[in-house]
Amino acid sequence: MDEHSPLESPEGSWWDKKVNRRETIWLGISGAWAISIFGWMLGWTEIGEQNQMGDTYKLSTEKFQQKVTEFKEEADTTTIDGEEVYVPAGEDVYIGALQWAWDGLPVVLEAGKTYKFHLGAYDVQHGFSVRNEDNLSQQISLQMLPGYEWVLDMTFDDPGTYQVVCNEFCGTGHRTMHGKFFVREET
Amino acid sequence: MNVSDFTGTFEYDEDGFRTCGITGLNIHKSAEDMVKLFGVTAIVALLVGGTFAFFVAMTRWELVGLLSPSDFYKYLSVHAWYLLIFWMVFMEIAILYVGGPFVLGRRLSLPRVAQAAYGMMVVGALTITYGIWRQKPPNWAPLLTSYVPLPSPAEFYLGVDIFLLGALVAAIPFLATIWHWKNANPNKTLPLIAFGAFITSIVAAEAIIGGLITFVPAFFWRIGVLGHLDPAWYRQMYWIIGHGSQQINLLAMITIWYFMTHVVGGAEVASEKVSRFAFVLYLFFINLGAAHHLMSDPGLSMSWRVWNTSYAAYGAMVASMIHAFAIPAGLEVGRRRKNLGGGTFGWLWSSPWKDPGFSSTVLSIILFGFLGGITGVMMGQMQLNMTWHNTLAVPGHFHATVATGTTLAFMGLSYYVLRLVFGRNWIGGIIATIQPYLYAGAMSVSVLMMMYLGILFSVPRRHPTVMDIPGTEFSFAPGSPFFAVFGIAAVFAILGGALFVAIAVGTLLFGKRWRGDETNTHGLLNAPDSVEGEPHDSSMKGTFILTGIFFATFVVLYALNWYLLSQIWQIGP
Question: In this complex, do A4 and B269 lie within 8 Å of one another by their Cβ atoms?
Fold first, then answer.
């Protein structure tokens, strides 16, 4: 019988037994790594440019839909590639997700200007998944909940077309839920 | 020829006990019967879930494009529930009954309760299946998450409640067994395996209670008793079970790692103190780690999110890193002390690599760490989560943890359950030897492809078609070569899984009697410690080098993920 078997009750004062030197070093590495990655994440909220932090408001889905409608009414329109797009009147951009479309899109934004994105859903949960068409790894996903309005600052440096798909399952039409926005150099 | 020759089962003494010739455990029939029942049911669930995996993978590989979008979600739901939940949880109950009654040499307390729990779990599972299968609008397929307010069939929520309650009840006989053992042995410490199983049961109970808090109101909401469920509340409650169920897998798997490396490889406990400390870290921290599902959600403050991914997730990460050292170190010192290999890696080369029980376990340890563990920490960082959230990289992550790591560990255990519990040697010869390598290799390639597609090509999860999005020219076509590799690897992985089921079922039906002797126990039976002193006196240099490689990989992947994030436009203040 193996007295150091994990199937046997350890004999005597197992807490006081020595730990191998290399195992002790590994414990130190693990602890230091945990503190390092925590510190990095916390530090990024100060020095980093990508932090999904912004105010959230609880409101009815009707109220949010009304805000998106007002946004569209106040916005100018222009034509890009034969498609009519909204030009936001100010710094606010409202995007409402619904089964199965994007309300408030498409919009055209100025590169380098900071916008407040107001994200919300009209019916069920949706996902705001955006990527730069020319650089697919430039991409993010944010959750959109009915009854909540999430306000996030966004500033785009790279002009181009940003493709939006829903990435929270919202029924069989989920795959058809597509929108986009454009980022243009200042004119 | 008596009956036991025919059934392959063992004979018990008049008290219902027998002594296992390999592990030396005193096993009671009451526990063994339930281990067989839960174990075989788990393998049936694996068969169903694996069959549905084929349909899911062959739909996402759009060159094949097997299912229509509505069928896709139905099949995906069945696939998810049978593999992520039924295959896992039935096996975990079996593991509790091994870790408690088997290891402690006791009968299973309250066997009737265990039988009732089994019945509830089966009824729950079938009700869930019925709910998924009869889904039609206005209901939708639940997938794994069934986020409110998207409605799923009422039967589905009811089935989940019954199943969860059954799983909770199934833990009671285990806990009662521990209780009776402790009363009989007030001054003894639980063996490490039993301690791991005990922590598993606590973490499981926490998760399941969270699940009931989520799914009982969801059922009443669906049948109209409750008018409204807040989607943010649901998400926070849901993930207590949604991720908590996967933490049960993790703890059960690690317990199995200690068990299998010992039984098949001759491992010893490198340090009781360190390994137990790591289990205690899990007890306090791992369920809070589920907060990482809410990193890209509205409504939660930055400090809530950072707090829950820092003290909580990293308490669990440190625990996993400790086990990642302690388990190979246990194998290293155990084999060194039995003179089964010297030098830096001699203990590893001399290991029984042809034994699928051993190879499954080692592949599980390596792949869970490199592919599953590292990626889990990545997406648990608040900001990196934005780049992972709901992309195909997320299924990539949990197919690395659950479908590769844990599944391999459970396969490895099953090979030994066939031998040590059913008393049958596995059939298949070289095919059984190859099976873990085929499954592990093919799964590794397919999960890597899913992660690449998610992170580098921003391909969303839960989409039957990303090469053709109705109403737009835009598509994810640049990712199609990766999908081709994914599809081919998935076919091989499913073949590897099918081989396992075929070997398991074939062994039960046609396997030869197995009683264990020198020819198939890798010389461990007659290899007592040849070295004086304690395990911690032996060298762990081989393990130190291996974990060093792991740590270097971790740091490099961490840096790469942050580099990719830094290339994104400015978000937030």
Answer: yes
